[in-house]
Batch of 2 targets.
Target 1
Amino acid sequence: GAVVSQHPSWVICKSGTSVKIECRSLDFQATTMFWYRQFPKQSLMLMATSNEGSKATYEQGVEKDKFLINHASLTLSTLTVTSAHPEDSSFYICSARWEGLLEQYFGPGTRLTVT
Amino acid sequence: KQEVTQIPAALSVPEGENLVLNCSFTDSAIYNLQWFRQDPGKGLTSLLLIQSSQREQTSGRLNASLDKSSGRSTLYIAASQPGDSATYLCAVIGGSQGNLIFGKGTKLSVKP
């Protein structure tokens, strides 16, 4: 089956610093990648959709200047949380799919804690 | 706007029981519906995917049904085991970009 990895699996950073999370599709070319966020005891909420080679589309309420998404290749998308604050602490999960198929494959998630 | 609701929010059963988890969605115009399992602090494991033209899917002790017209899906777990303890998420593809819209999940606890 299709495998998606995320790195790091967890990260602790100080308030005001930036953190980059990588999402890789290991055995397929992901034309579309999604970034979700999950707060404790809440469900996953879509943050943004990125298509290879184009700008990401952000959901309402998600600051595009704060959450920078780059999908420069068919196997890699990155999410950079800039000037992180404690309220950004959450579980970030990416998913990927290839063109023409609706099924998404999820990464294992990244736990971000901002102190 | 598509909304997905899961009932109950939490469920505790003794080992061996059969159980049903419920999922409802407000907009019947979906491409597919997917059930996931999430263990604490972990990512998602896809359990079953039902395409909009299908009515059910089965995998081992799991059976998922889909009734688009009524906006409902159920996940049936037969002969539950302690290892089934996890949060079960229901999601539909409803966004214009093919993103998944998730319910809040049902936290299942199977007692030995």
Note: Chain A has a mean pLDDT of 92.
Target 2
Amino acid sequence: EVQLVESGGGLVQPGGSLRLSCSASGFTFNTYAMNWVRQAPGKGLEWVSTISSDGGSTYYTDSVKGRFTISRDNSKNTLYLQMNSLRAEDTAVYYCTNRGMAAAGIRVFECWGQGTLVTVSS
Amino acid sequence: EIVMTQSPATLSVSPGESATLSCRASQSVSSNLAWYQQKPGQAPRLLIYGASTRATGIPARFSGSGSGTEFTLTISSLQSEDFAVYYCQQYNNWPPLTFGGGTKVQIK
């Protein structure tokens, strides 16, 4: 069974930093691109970032470029999101996701973690 | 960036009836369109990808259609567990991957 378990969320002041982790199991982690998707309270879904299976390619939504860094450790089956210079508008539940049973290259999100809440407030 | 627009924002439907949800893309996304269902307090669930292919374990009462810029999700004979928020997402031109604003299907 595929499991994605996020951790690392919490309350942080504006301008602060936080690192999210996503521990993966139940699938061959190093063959899957991985993604972060977020959802602000009461709002819709927003794609944040994607990393290729080998970590060699990364992609970001414009609003986080230069502030967030996605990375992975395939030896530990773990995905990360380093978030710096946090703003109030980054407040959201952050989900770790992958394409699940969809074919490689189909950028959809079938497997999701339970999410971790990041709150940016003074 | 491709903008995805969903309508209506809210749909009131009686159990057993069908529901038709719309999603429009600001430019063609071919058939690279997915639909998700989200219930309160839960992560989203992938329903449809490739505009019309049901994801693993999704009941046949969920069907998707369309291509280019106009897409539809139809839920036939709504069950109590189908009342939720539904999102469309395009993956044709990225980054960024973009979602619609959602349609809430509520009990009439």
Note: The first strand of chain A starts at residue 3 and ends at 7.
